Amino acid sequence: MESKSASSNNFIKTIVAEDLAAGRVTEVVTRFPPEPNGYLHIGHAKSICLNFELADEFKGRTNLRFDDTNPVKEDVEYVESIKRDVQWLGFEWDGLFFASDYFGQMYDKALLLIRKGLAYVDDQSVDQIRENRGTLTEPGVESPYRNRSVEENLDLFERMRKGEFANGEKVLRAKIDMASPNVNLRDPVIYRIVHAHHHNTGDAWCIYPMYAFAHPLEDAIEGVTHSICTLEFEDQRPFYDWVVEHCETEAKPRQYEFNRLNLTNTVMSKRKLKQLVDEKVVDGWDDPRMPTISGLRRKGYTPEAIRAFCREIGVAKSYGVVDERMLEHFIREDLKLKAPRTMAVLRPLKVVITNYPEGETEWLEAENNSENEEMGTRRIPFSREIYIEQDDFMEVPPPKYFRLFPGNEVRLKHAYFIKCEEVVKNDAGEVVELRCTYDPETKSGSGFSGRKVKGTIHWVEASQAVPATFRLYEPLIRDEDEGEDSSFLERINPNSLETLEGFVEPGMKDAAGQDKFQFFRHGYFNVDPKDSAPGRPVFNRIVSLKSSFEVGKA
Q1: Whether residue 347 lies in the annotated active site
Q2: Please, where in the chain does CATH 3.40.50.620 lie?
Q3: CATH domain 341-461 topology
Q4: Which reaction does it catalyse (predicted)?
Q5: Residues of the binding site
Q6: pLDDT value of position 553
């Protein structure tokens, strides 16, 4: 679904068009630069769509680049998952790069800064540097090592490179202005010592550039024209520009910031998502309750729905929170003409149609999608015994209850009228079976008009019904405020997952992983690609059928 406002709610697109028209750039080059320290989530999808679609629209290029400057938190598993997610969303990168590809060049730029008197080796601890940084209203305190000679700094930095010092013993800092009103310019650390194996460079390095120093250099090396970041990097832009200027890069990339995606009832912190995985609150990064791209894929979301959602929410400078129902709207819109509409009984109640011939089965015609005739029809069995939903029967119904109750008649979807004649209970007084009669004159499609009923219920024929597991989801976190407190685990929704055992039509016996269906009255479901087995499918509910949400009226 293409948003009506897709061409007008993206201020970065306007900047790119103006840069091309004015000749400031001749080819648009963007990049998606994730850190490989976790799986991507829906917020990253917004950035992916923005960078790749901008370049595509203006016939430019987009690189996928891994900002792998912290070997302690990075892993090849994350690298592969990120590549998989980008491709699943429908994008192909022009260049695949790693920050670690440029470690040698970054080291040379650090030496250049030292020689220019713009960087120095500091022996203070991380805590001391933090304490001496100052506040928003008070300037920082200069390091006692700030005025080391160029020669001494070159010697110490080379020895850091050779591994002569322990982790945290020394750092390299840019020499800018400890009294700057922007704390990001108060001699930021640009290199630290980390004796750890790196997934890409092995043990070749024991010093690693800080992200804020590496990022502008990576952009410059790759010739990126528009370096697009989220708003939390806005205060770091002056340092970005400082690095580009004083490291004398040939290319001069520019950084632009946009609002990150925040969804209601959703954790959008990679650190918190990792905590959920590590503490086994969820079943891995691809748990369908997770807002990760892999979790959304396993739940049943489509790349088309996610891309349409990202276009609709737009790109702006202001902070905001998007209603999660908006994302659900787009998967409904995408699936309503694609998904076959079948019947599933999630909480089965047995019905015996006493006047239907024993041992007989007939096959009924049912359309696959009433809104898309091209999807054709299917044949479903009908016999003396069927399953219906438990909540489609009430022994003592309230007013305006039009489903099944003693003496009432309803239509079975695609089949006949049935009337409840008898209720069978177990020793605990629970209803375990209904005895009904059917009217053979009321077959669907026969043109019968002798009388009307107000209720239509769905069902599955009992002898050929396929046992199935159904997983119903609610938000994992209630009212997540994205604060820095660690109590977000206290807001775990205990009802985030409900598992039911029921039945589906026999034609769904061999449904494959990621096959999607609309179950009458229940919603859209996806065949779980990990837990389903031949003849025993597991269905994840993607979304219910209806929502009060309207696009443009959030």
Answers
A1: no
A2: 11-99+216-268+300-329
A3: Ribosomal Protein L25; Chain P (2.40.240)
A4: tRNA(Gln) + L-glutamine + ATP = L-glutaminyl-tRNA(Gln) + AMP + diphosphate
A5: 35-37, 41-47, 67, 211, 230, 260-261, 268-270
A6: 53
Stretch (H or E) spanning 172 = strand 171-174
466-544 carries CATH number 3.50.50.60: no
pLDDT given at position 1: 35
Report how far residue 198's alpha carbon sits from residue 67's, in angstroms, rounded to the nearest whole number: 12
- Return the pLDDT at 226: 97
Catalytic-labelled residue, pool 260, 289, 298, 299: 260
Is the whole model's pTM more than 0.90, yes or no? yes
Assess contact for 502 and 348: CB atoms under 8 A. yes
Q: Say if strands 523-527 and 516-519 run parallel, antiparallel, or are unpaired.
A: antiparallel
The pLDDT of residue 547 is: 72
- Angle (CA) 99-292-7 rounded to 5° is 80
Binding-site residues for L-glutamine sit at 67, 211
User: Which one of 61, 170, 270, 516 is the catalytic residue?
Assistant: 270
Q: Which of 429, 436, 439 is nearest to 387 (CA)?
A: 436
**What's the pLDDT score for residue 489?**
85
Q: Calculate the CA 30 to chain-centre distance.
A: 22
Where residue 187 falls (left for φ over 0; alpha for ψ -120 to 50; beta otherwise) is left
Q: Which two tokens stand for residue 200?
A: 């890409």
Known catalytic residue: 270?
yes
Residue ranges, CATH 3.90.800.10, the chain: 103-211
**Contact between residue 408 and residue 420 where contact means Cβ atoms under 8 Å apart:** yes
Binding residues for ATP: 35-37, 41-47, 230, 260-261, 268-270
Residues 204, 210, 214, CA angle at the centre, nearest 5°? 85
Interior angle at CA 539, CA 536 and CA 545, nearest 5: 145
Find, among 221, 215, 218, 226, the residue nearest to 29 by Cα.
226
The CATH 2.40.240.10 domain(s) of the chain lie at 341-461, 466-544
Long-range residue pairs from 306-309, CB within 8 A, at least 24 positions apart, any chain = 306/42, 306/45, 306/49, 306/89, 306/330, 307/49, 307/89, 307/90, 308/1, 308/2, 308/3, 308/333, 308/334
Contact 168, 156 (CB under 8 A): no
CB 97 within 8 A of CB 130: no
Q: Please give the single-letter amino acid code of residue 119.
A: A
For 175, which DSSP code?
-
User: Which residues of the chain are under the pLDDT cut of 50?
Assistant: 1-7, 480, 482, 484, 486, 554
Provide CB contacts within 8 A for 90, sequence distance 6+. Answer: 303, 304, 307
Count CB atoms within 10 A of the CB of residue 244: 20
Helix or strand holding residue 273 (H, E): helix 270-278
Give the pLDDT score at 8: 58
| CATH numeric code, 103-211 | 3.90.800.10
Active site residue 521: no
